[in-house]
Amino acid sequence: MNLPQSTHRLFDEPKDVTLITIDPDGSPHAAMVWVGRDGDDLLIGVEEKHRKTRNLRRDPRVTLVLQDDRTSPRGLTQYLVVRGTAKLERDPQRYKELMDRLSKKYLGRDEFPFWSEQVSANATVVRVVADRVTGEGPWAAR
């Protein structure tokens, strides 16, 4: 599905996003991540050593949650929930480009400050394709 236009600004601003993956025992695993947008797809940089990456390799279902700084017409804090499917691509160059872009957005720095050869060897880009969008805001069907 396409992300509603009303959600685009949330991913173009430096908002922390909670990524929820599924552990082997079926329980949720939550991690804070930086997220970029490529059209309607959401991009996240991860390393192979992380639990979230192992979870995604085993089960690509994800949920992303982020809180907006705006209030809905109902007087509630707006938030967005995106359920989707992740595709992983192990590509150090694309990871570096993504993380440089996200470092500019989140830190105001032109380059990702945590880049190293060790990171390069494990760099993976996660592309999330939205299956369902809910929450509190103009993107939520009521």
TrEMBL record:
GO terms for molecular function: coenzyme F420 binding; oxidoreductase activity, acting on the CH-CH group of donors. Coiled coil: none annotated. It comes from the Bacteria. The keyword Oxidoreductase applies. Residues 9-133 form the Pyridoxamine 5'-phosphate oxidase N-terminal domain. It comes from Kribbella sindirgiensis. This is PPOX class F420-dependent oxidoreductase. The keyword S-adenosyl-L-methionine does not apply. GO terms for cellular component: cytosol. Pfam families: PNPOx_N.
